[in-house]
């Protein structure tokens, strides 16, 4: 094998990849994936594995009585299934002489920067010790509004947090199919250059496979990460040798071409949707200034029209345009009370410094 294309990657494995038609863990596929990850690890590639399958594995262990609430069912199934899942990984990696670690996170772990940095330090230390982190959502305790949409969202956050070279989503389909052409059988799109193309052009609205947690979410996350400078691949995890093929540069699945890298705090802030403590509405002039390509502008009180909710210094807040649409996120340099006092005033200190500001495209 030639030198692998990437030195550090996040590999996300979906439930559909590692469970069979009865919903049980598919040992053959797991063996095949673990053997590929091990081969790459032995070539020096740092790999963080985000694996779903806890709820699926739980389903094959226990049958739950009808009438149990969906939240309780998910809690019971995931907490029983996660043990089976992680033990299976640990045993399989051990056969290749590799150690594994289990990391379970919730969305609120990403809320404050200190906590975020703690997770990052932990994952970096595991990689330094050549241990494979196997990450999943802590489904037993993450309930309703503070849940990740799915593991695509979680793995995207890990990929940007760890500054990986590539983020590989293994699903049970071959990639993003071109649904825009009615005349022919759809083909997998091999490359999407986000500078010139948008994945929406290939998607036929209303197709069920693009529903929640489906290809549409994957493409949204892929697009976001490619904007940060991370190459993203969406490929079929059930295809033999798929990871080795991707790292060998073979044209498999769909590849999102990255743009210039964005580092640090801005990446953390970019993943703050749903974690904000409050919001500010800004006027059109301020929006134009923030979006300026020539200058890096911070958000000043003079451009703020109104303050929603209550926040303190260091909290993440949402930025809305005049019509109320969310246009970005940032870290407040002072409280909502102080912002109200300074509203519309000139020459005041920025509420959000440029380094702590993320604007949506
Ligand atoms: N955390 C869930 C599990 O392990 C999966 C969530 C998802 O499929 O995205 O079962």
Structural notes for this entry:
The chain is of the alpha/beta class and 361 residues long. The chain folds into 2 domains: 8-267, 3-Layer(aba) Sandwich (Carbamate kinase), CATH 3.40.1160; 276-359, Archaeosine Trna-guanine Transglycosylase, Chain: A, domain 4 (Roll). Helices cover 33% and strands 19% of the residues. It contains 11 helices and 13 strands. An 8-stranded mixed beta sheet has the order 3-4-2-1-5-7-8-6, sandwiched between helices. Strands 10-9-11-12-13 form a 5-stranded mixed beta sheet. Helix 3 (54-61) crosses helix 4 (70-94). The radius of gyration is 22 Å and the shape is globular.
Which secondary structure elements does this structure contain, and how are they paired or packed?
Layout: E1 8-13, H1 15-18, H2 27-42, E2 46-51, H3 54-61, H4 70-94, E3 99-105, H5 113-128, E4 131-137, H6 151-161, E5 166-171, E6 191-193, H7 215-228, E7 231-236, H8 242-247, E8 254-257, H9 265-270, E9 278-282, H10 284-290, E10 304-309, E11 316-320, E12 326-331, H11 336-342, E13 357-359
Parallel strand pairs: 1-2, 1-5, 2-4, 3-4, 5-7, 6-8, 9-11
Antiparallel strand pairs: 7-8, 9-10, 11-12, 12-13
Helix pairs in contact: 2-4, 3-4, 6-7
Bound molecules: glutamic acid.
């Amino acid at each position: 094998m030639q030198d692998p294309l990437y030195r550090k990657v996040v590999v996300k494995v979906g439930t559909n990849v590692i469970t069979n038609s009865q919903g049980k863990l598919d040992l053959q596929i797991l063996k095949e994936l673990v053997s590929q990850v091990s081969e790459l690890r032995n070539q020096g590639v740092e790999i963080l594995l985000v694996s779903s399958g806890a709820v699926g594995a739980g389903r094959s262990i226990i049958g739950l009585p009808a009438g149990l609430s969906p939240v309780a069912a998910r809690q019971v199934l995931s907490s029983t299934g996660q043990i089976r899942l992680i033990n299976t990984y640990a045993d399989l990696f051990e056969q290749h002489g590799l150690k594994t670690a289990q990391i379970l996170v919730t969305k609120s772990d990403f809320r404050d920067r200190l906590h975020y940095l703690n997770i990052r330090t932990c994952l970096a230390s595991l990689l330094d010790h050549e241990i494979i982190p196997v990450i999943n959502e802590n489904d037993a305790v993450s309930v309703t509004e503070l849940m990740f949409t799915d593991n695509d969202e979680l793995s995207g956050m890990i990929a940007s947090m760890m500054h990986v070279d590539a983020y590989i989503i293994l699903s049970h389909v071959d990639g993003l199919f071109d649904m825009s052409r009615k005349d022919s059988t759809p083909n997998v799109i091999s490359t999407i250059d986000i500078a010139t193309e948008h994945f929406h052009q290939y998607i036929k609205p209303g197709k069920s496979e693009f529903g929640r947690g489906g290809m549409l979410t994957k493409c949204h996350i892929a697009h976001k990460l490619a904007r940060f400078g991370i190459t993203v691949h969406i490929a079929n995890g059930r295809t033999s040798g798929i990871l080795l093929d991707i790292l060998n540069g073979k044209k498999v699945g769909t590849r999102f071409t990255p743009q210039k890298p964005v580092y640090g705090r801005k990446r953390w802030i970019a993943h703050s949707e749903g974690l904000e403590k409050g919001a500010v509405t800004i006027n059109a002039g301020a929006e134009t200034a923030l979006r300026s390509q020539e200058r890096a502008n911070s958000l000043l009180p003079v451009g703020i029209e109104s303050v929603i909710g209550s926040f303190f210094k260091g909290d993440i807040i949402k930025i809305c345009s005049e019509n109320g649409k969310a246009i970005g996120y940032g870290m407040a340099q002072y409280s909502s009370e102080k912002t109200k006092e300074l509203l519309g005033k000139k020459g005041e200190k920025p509420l959000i410094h440029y380094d702590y500001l993320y604007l949506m495209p």
